[in-house]
Specification:
single chain, seven-stranded mixed beta sheet
Length: 197
């Protein structure tokens, strides 16, 4: 996969702000829920990409979707003990979509061909700010994750090679089955995927 590096923290911040603005233009009803990340990106006194920032920091994830079977690829998160889309902390180097593609590939072993086919410009389908509880074992207090979720085209017949240090399982699930996972975010995603069909 090609990686487009961003040379400076200022370029990365500007990229994230542009992605947020574009997203809010597409989903204006969500603007109020995203005020915390908008405020952090506007405040240049702290790095919103740093894991040390306990106000909150940016993460990226990817929804790997097979349109033919109407299924999405989920991982069972080892620490949170929940089924989620693949994702993780942004490493402060690449465009957000490149980071999301890397997380999908690392955690599931699948190649994100859609990222290359779309010139590393997959649709940003959701942004979610959510609370993360304190983790004394890692020396982390409670904070927010501001997750930028990109949509990648997938193939449910592709072989999987999970990163077992990070995940407890990987599976394809029907899009509608996301509703059973009791997550407001997954409810939004089911609706958004309907529109993307």
């Amino acid at each position: 996969m090609r990686h487009k590096s961003l040379a400076t923290p200022a370029e990365l911040r500007a990229h994230a702000q542009a992605e947020l603005e574009k997203y809010i233009a597409s989903f204006p009803a969500e603007a109020t829920d995203l005020q915390a990340i908008a405020d952090q990106l506007a405040d240049t006194s702290a790095d919103p990409f740093s894991r040390a920032n306990m106000q909150g920091h940016i993460t990226t994830s990817g929804l790997f979707y097979d349109r033919a079977s109407d299924k999405v690829l989920l991982i069972h998160h080892r620490t949170l003990n929940r089924w989620l889309q693949p994702g993780g902390h942004h490493e402060g180097l690449d465009r957000l979509d490149v980071s999301a593609a890397r997380e999908v590939e690392e955690e599931t072993g699948v190649q994100v061909c859609g990222a290359q086919d779309q010139a590393l410009d997959p649709p940003l389908i959701d942004i979610d700010s959510h609370a993360i509880p304190a983790n004394p074992a890692k020396g982390e207090g409670a904070h927010l994750h501001h997750d930028f979720l990109y949509l990648f085209r997938g193939d449910a017949t592709a072989p999987l090679s999970p990163q077992w240090e990070e995940v407890q399982g990987v599976r394809w699930v029907a899009r509608e089955a996301l509703l059973a996972l009791q997550s407001a975010r997954f409810v939004r995603l089911v609706s958004k995927l309907r529109l993307a069909l």
